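Weekly puzzle thread! Below is a chain. First person to post its structure in token form gets bragging rights.
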Amino acid sequence: MRNESKIIEFIPRLRRYAYALYRGNETAADDLVQDCIERALRNMASWQQGTDLRAWLFTIMHNLYVNQIKRMSNGPNFVDLNDDLFAGLQGRADNHMLLRDLEGALNTLPPDQKEILLLVTLEGMSYREVADIMDIPEGTVMSRLSRARQQIRKIISGEVVPHIRRVK
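Winning reply:
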């Protein structure tokens, strides 16, 4: 199978991650995926045969996303996670409320913690893979993930009321 054909297999995973980053904003997520694939195809010669193509693609996407955030003058523009990600839980009011609370808690996390939490939980990546993608030590991944999970637990249990920053 040609390398370009292998990239196609990862499009659904890239889209799912991009949708989570942009909280369901399909246009922004699709643009990010398209930019990622375009850059990957353009730089296919720099991918080393035998290495993890998935990690390479997610690294490209992470770098593009970080660059977009840096360019935004008013910070990241996250949008809500859509219920399609949790289709098996739809229909029950208590699950819907739990998802709403989880979504709200996710949105209070700093972007670096949110990215790590999504890569580990949504994409099932190992700490090493996330560390390589984000170009940070594995211990940093573990500590940010731990802090993110702890913050989510506190918010959902009602121990902590999320601080909402006022923008003037």
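Puzzle host: Confirmed. Bonus trivia for everyone else. Residues 138-157 form the longest helix (20 residues).
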